[in-house]
Amino acid sequence: MTTVYVEPDDEITTAIAKLRGLADGEALLIVPPGSRIATSRINFKLLAREAHERRINVAAVSDDPAVRALAISAGLPTYDTVAGAEQALANFREQDRQLAERLGREPGESGEPPPWSSTRAADVRATDTVVMPGPIVEAPPVKGRAGVGPTDTQILPATDEPLAHRRRTRRVPVAPLLVLGLLALLVAGVAYGAYVFLPTATITLVPSTSPVNLDSFTVIADPGTAVLDPVAGTLPAQTIELPLHMSDTFDATGSQVHETRATGSVRFRSENTVNAVQVAQGTIVATPGGIQFETTEAATVPKADFSSGTPGTVDVHVRALRLGPSGNVATGTITQEPGNLSAQLVSVRNPAPTEGGQRVEDKLITQADYDAAVATLTDRLDAALATALADPESIPRGLTAYPETASHDAPQPDQPASELVGTLAPNFALAVDATGHVLAVNESLIDEIATARLDAALGPGRQMVGDQPTVSHGPGAVSHDLISYQVDASALTYTAPDQQSLLNLVRGKTMTEARDILSAYGMVDILMWPDFVDRLPDQISRISLTVTPPTAGS
Asked: 285: which residues sit within 8 A by CB, 6+ positions away?
């Protein structure tokens, strides 16, 4: 026994080629639903003829009632399971053996094809009789054969001749009698198959829909809520942290003054020829403008030489009494000496300019400078936080941030005041760091709350069309770190009817009656096979009912 699988897209020529390639005389032909071969009764007739010509016992297997009915109407034995087909082939094989024994030959000895190869129906009633000409002799019943029941009787010619002689005399008319018997079986099989499998009805029902609208309700996003609560209408609000950094350079406004005295030397000249004149340390000399200097050492002015007319001179170091550049005087400007020296004929003059008198002012960082810099950077943090909120990369995907809730921590300078205040410098650099905070909400959770409330509002057996209801809400309103939403929700719903109850309602009804009954449940489509039948079968097994869930557009 060989199992031949027919692919859904196989043509009839392909199926026949598979039968021709068989190595034995029995085959199971597996025909799937939707096969091209099952679109025409002629295809099954061709398969039956091929099996008949090649003396092959063939049984088709299909779980589609329409396919089985079509195959049976073409004279091809057909079963809904492989086990049933295998048992039928075994019965056929036994019947062929018994028939061969009665005809006095081995199975397949005659030039005729096996009489049961292609004319068996799937089912023959137990009271069917094969009639052959001649006197009536009752043959033993053949049990278990497809097409012959346990009480079937074959009517054969009766005679008093020996069995061997009877076999010889019957050789000539055997073929016509077999043909008549096979035709009778074919007619009976087709009739019984039509009784079992015809007609069939295919019903498709799309249930009617109705809307469900919830009253408007409020949902609160709370940073203190950890989990979604559809009953309370609350969902978590997340706090998003944003790092902030600001830096700049600031000028120092304080100052520190540093002054130095001008220094130089003066030359005392004496025309006193009597004695030397003593000049004490700290003797004050000055310019005519009043810029005073003091000697930094004691000195003695020698007396003048009268004979040669040479005055006595001595150079003495001096420094300005006042700090700053005012002590820087030109050569010969220091000419004022104390009266006690001039009375002794001593004069004074600076042979070179005095130098080194300065007033230097250095910039100093004050506490006020530091505090002002921190305040300026702190004010800029607000703008930095607004910029960060405007950057899509700052907020995790799927969250909606609410800038009204934004704030930042106290800034932390990168240098303490103790390190900068009092430092001599024209300017200084300072930076502050802070952490910004803003509340954000995963607003898709509002849909989950709405879906849960709609599910709770549906009655028993009521279902929503599709996976998602229609949910709408405006932007959240912020109040004391709570964000509230006003939500509206609706859904299209349907009730899936009990299929067994519907089948009981429409069985045996005309198509018009069945359509009127089912229309109360939704849109219905009824397909009868054969199409000239106008009444649904009374057997529920011949009615296929499919309830198709409606879609949003149906």
From this structure: 266, 292, 293, 294, 295, 318, 334, 336, 337, 338, 348
